[in-house]
Amino acid sequence: MRILVVCGAGASSTFVAQRLQRAAVSAGLPWATEAGTESSALSAAGVDLVLLGPHLADRADDIRAALAGRSLVVPLPDDAFTDLDGSRTLHLVRDAMAAPHDRKENP
Questions:
Q1: ∠ CA(20), CA(79), CA(93), 5° rounding?
Q2: CA 45 to chain CA mean position, Å
Q3: The model scores a pTM over 0.85
Q4: Beta-ladder partners of 33
Q5: Are 75 and 57 contacting, i.e. CB atoms less than 8 angstroms apart?
Q6: 20-75 pLDDT, tens per residue?
Q7: Which residue stretches of 10-51 are H helix?
Q8: CATH number of this structure's domain 2-105, picked from the four choices 3.40.50.2300, 3.40.50.300, 3.90.550.10, 3.30.450.40
């Protein structure tokens, strides 16, 4: 699975993406994570999941519409940047991917 973590400038999302990658590797999951900005999310290709920084949660519907169902879009909780080992973010991703959803109307 390929995951894009998005924030305003791509700096704090880098930390979340790195921590999530380490947690995924520790759990034996073959996930690839990367960081980006809102503009990179709008044109994301081959990405299964876009995690939005909490400050971009109000843009989730616009990003979902731009991706036209190609990727699941999930806002991160307010405390996402304090998840130092990536375990909470890993749990969030697992829950989001396991939940039934229509990618065009995802939560």
A1: 40
A2: 14
A3: yes
A4: 3
A5: yes
A6: 999 999 999 999 999 998 888 887 788 999 999 999 999 999 999 988 888 999 99
A7: 11-26, 38-42
A8: 3.40.50.2300
